[in-house]
Amino acid sequence: MPENTQFDYIIVGAGTAGCVLANRLSKNASNNVLLVEAGGKDDYFWIDIPVGYLFTISNPRTDWCYKTEPDPGLNGRSIAYARGKVLGGCSSINAMLYMRGQKGDFDHWAELGNEGWAWQDVLPIFKHSEDYQHGADDYHGSGGELRVEQSRVSWEILDAWREAADEFGIPKIDEFNRGDNFGNAYFQVNQKRGVRWSAVDAFLKPALHRKNLTIITRAQVTKLQIEAGESSKRATGIQLITDKGEQQIITAHKEVILAAGAIGSPQLLQVSGIGPAGLLQETSVQCIHDLPGVGENLHDHLQIRTIYKVENTVTLNQRFHSLSGKIAMGLEYLLFKKGPLTMPPSQLGAFGRSDPGQETANIEWHVQPLSLDHFGAPLHKFNAITPSVCNLRPTSRGHVRIKSSDTNVYPAITLNYLSTQEDQQVAIDSLRVTRAIMATKAMAPFSPKEWKPGLEVISDEDLLSAAGDLGATIFHPVGTCKMGNDAMAVVSDRLKVHGVDGLRVIDASIMPRITSGNTNAPTTMIAEKGAEFILADN
């Protein structure tokens, strides 16, 4: 517990956004800043090693280990829904892929009436944060905190898949972060010389020496303090409890900032009495401010994991099941910080169209030189690759809704995957496009054989059912506190909660529509802009 119970700014959540905000707000020595994290320190061995995501996801030490509600679109399945429970949040356990999204994503936000969020507005913010391996240019920055490098491992089968995509009509390009992602390339990663470069490494550690920044770990915020007058409402602080049972009320003189993510931020708003009045009444929470959009508009990228057995090459499956292969991988990493232990979950990506009528690339492949039944399961004992494909602009929407006023009770997370005709058609078409790429001449030397879903799956109905069986999250939840001015918007384009002064939400939950690709880099940008808004407004 901090000795001081009064701060200028209180930031709830030390994930990607929280780390950025803590750095930027505490840069001015006159600002007294508190950063509160429910998880522990990022001192777990496997966090720094890139392949360690295998041991941090679904590990209660580092992951909240949420489960989704049974989903009709997934043929009734409930799936694990990882969220970081550690300093650095998801940046300490995620895929490390640096993906900004496409120009049209941000221009769409601006077209909805969100001033200052178009591609031309956000590109300089991306560049400001970045320390690009190859130096500054029109699309990249140098000298920023967030290190961006090329992958440090290669696989023959991925080089061949890249040629196959090019043969199919998805051209080889240098990278995905220039606004138009159509093409195929190796992903850029948030690593520094083969070591994970999380938001803690980038933004928090450089600020630890500042006397005006206080950080609390293993402290759960249980409620926001809200003063409700006749004509206005204002957030004045937080209630929290530590893992030792200590309770405290802490005051914010200027602002309370929620950076707890697309699950945590709406949950905390709802238990504090800010959200849909009907839901609050059902859960015996006093409604302080009826804000119907809190927790709604949840959406995510559903990844359909197809698997193909291959021959005449080596994949991670083979190396992993060989003692000599394991020893070689360990030595390669220990001595040179290269090789499979530097691997993110996917190394090669491609952006294409599920059908010619799509205006821009609307599907993305994450191609892996390995295969397994599901995340956390052992690798198969046969050589195989996994070209996973996802819909970049899903129209299905779900929600996050509390079941109790107790923040220790997980909320109901409902995705409603594949619940619209558009999403169903994209899933069917994307499976057929994947088959076409695997049938190219470039793949022929490796004799690919479709193992999942299997060549017997032919009709639209069967392909859709297979998508439900094979579909899994890529852990990109967004939208539950969306930015805008419509009836379901939660925050303004300056990220202030509508109707409550002194309160902002600054994390991926504010996205009105998901970006095309991984969401960590856009979350960094959102936090950078949010910090600018806070400093300017105060």
Core attributes:
538 residues, alpha+beta, eight-stranded antiparallel beta sheet, seven-stranded mixed beta sheet, 27 strands, globular
Describe this structure in words.
The chain starts with 5 loop residues before the first strand and ends with a helix. A hairpin with a 4-residue loop joins strand 13 (233-242) and strand 14. Helix 1 (16-26) runs parallel beside helix 14 and helix 5 packs across helix 14. The protein has 538 residues and is an alpha+beta fold.
Mean pLDDT: 96
Beta percentage is: 15-25%
Poorly predicted ranges (pLDDT <50, ≥5 residues)? none
**Helix content bin:** 25-40%
Largest sheet: 8 strands, antiparallel
Radius of gyration: 23 Å
Shape: globular
* Structural class category: alpha+beta
Total helical elements = 14
- Taking the alpha carbons of the first and last residues, their distance comes to 27 Å
β-strand number: 27
